[in-house]
Amino acid sequence: MKYKSFSKLLLLSLSFVFVLASCTKEGPMGPAGADGQDGTNGTNGTDGTNGVDGIAFCLECHTNTTIDALTAQWAPSGHASGSSLGYAGTRSGCSECHSGVGFVANLAGSEDISGSPINCSACHSHGEPPVFQNGDGEAIFVRTVRAVTLRTNPSAVIDMGSSANLCTNCHQPMTGVPVDDDGDGMFDVTSTHYGPHHGPQSVILEGMGGVEFAGSIEYPGTKSHPHRKSRDCVSCHMQEGSHAFSAPELSACTTCHSSATDFNVHGKLDDIHDLLVQLEGLLETEGIIHEGHPVVGSYPIDVVSAFYNYALVEEDKSEGVHNPKYVEALLTNTIEALGGVIASN
Fold it and tell me: Across all residues in the chain, what is the average pLDDT?
C-alpha cells in the first residue's frame, strides 16, 4: 500500500510540473499599437530628376569618331613622332619627358625606362582629379596641374594656374646657367650639345631663366607679360581642341591684336630675328659656336653665358612671340656685354 501511494504521488507531481511549464509559454502576438504623435503617416516626397547616363561624359571622347579624329591630328605632331623615343625614352633621366610611361611614372615619384610613345594617357587621366575647364566650360581631366619646381633651380617655382603646369614639367631648361665654380673666370664646355636643352618655353613665357647682363634695356618683371597672364599653352596651340600642337592660328593673336595680319606684330619678329643673327655672329667670332652648335673648349664665363642666352631663345622656337619684351632685353643686353652695338641704337 505504501508503494502504490508513493507512485500516485510521484505521477501527480510530474503532471503538475508539465501543466506549469505549458502555462508559461509565449502566447500569440497582440494587436499593433497606434501610430506615434498624431497617428498619421508623413507625405511621400516627389521623385527626383533622372540623372545623366553614367557613361555620357566618357563618350564625349571615347567614341571611334572622336578618337580617330584626334589620333589623326596627333600622329604627325612633334610629341608623337619625335625621333628621340628610341634612345632617350629608355634612358634614366630622359625617359620622364621622352616616353609616355616615363612621364606618368615621374609624376608619381618613380621611374620607368621601358619606353612607350607619348599618347593620350601620358597627359590625360581617366576620371581622377585634377580637372580644368576649357574655353567652352567643359571639364577636361589631366594628369597634373601642380606648380612646378625648376630642375635647374630648386628655389624657382612656376605656377601658371592652369593646365600649362602640365606642359611645364618638360618644357623647361634641363641644364642650368653656367657658373664659375673655380673662380678663374673660365667655363669648360664639354659637349657639342651643351645648353639649356630643347623646349625651355615655360621660362621664356615666365620672363626668367637667362643670364641677365646689365644693359640698355630694363628686364620686365617675371609673370608680367600678357601672354603669360591671359593665356596658357592650350589656348594657342590647341585651338578648337586640335591635338596637332602646330603653330597657333592667327585668330589666337587677333583676340588681342585685332589689326594683326600675321605673327610679326609691330615688327617684333623681325627685330628679334636680327638680334639673334647679330649675337650668333659674335659667338662665332669668339669661337664658341660653329653653324649654331657649341664647340668643346674653355671660354670666359661671359662668353659661355652669352651662348646660353642665345640657345635659350633659339630652343624656345617662338622667335620671341612667347615673351617679346623679355627676349628683346635678354638679347640686346647680351650683345652689348660682348661688345656689340645694336644697329637700331
Answer: 84
